[in-house]
Structures are given as structure tokens and as C-alpha cells.
Amino acid sequence: MGERISITISRELYEKAKKFIEEQGGFNSVEELVEFLLQEALGAEEETTTMTKEDEEKVKERLRALGYI
User: 34 near 20, Cβ under 8 Å?
Assistant: First the structure.
């Protein structure tokens, strides 16, 4: 993936992530989980820009039905 850098998170959040990994599996480390989540979040942002008008209307209909708009 390229050069790596360090980030800082709270001990509480780190412990929650560690517990999640122990219970759910799928990741070898908290760092791996955080990197995956960031990639998903940033990738999801890109996908929303390619939403079709039809998809957008469906989302709006669902939000209306739930009382959000």
C-alpha cells in the first residue's frame, strides 16, 4: 500500500477495537481494522457521487417513509 505513518487514538477506542477483533475475527491487528474502516469510509464517499437520479429518489422515498424528510 505504500509508506506507513502513525496516528493516535484514545486508549478506550483502541481497547474497543481490540475486543471487536477478538470477538469477531477477520483482522490480525487494530491497525489492520482501522485501515480497512478508513478505506471503506473513503471509498463509500466516492461511491455516493456516482449515485443515479433513480437511486437518489429511492433513498429520498425511504427517508420520507422513516420520517427523516
Answer: no
Contact between 33 and 17 (Cβ < 8 Å) = yes
3-state secondary structure of 52: coil
Q: What is the pLDDT of residues 3-42, one digit of tens each?
A: 999 999 999 999 999 999 999 989 999 999 999 999 999 9
Give the residue carrying C-alpha cell 437520479. 53
CB within 8 Å of 18: residues ≥ 6 apart? 30
Whether the CB-CB separation of 69 and 63 falls below 8 Å is answered with: yes
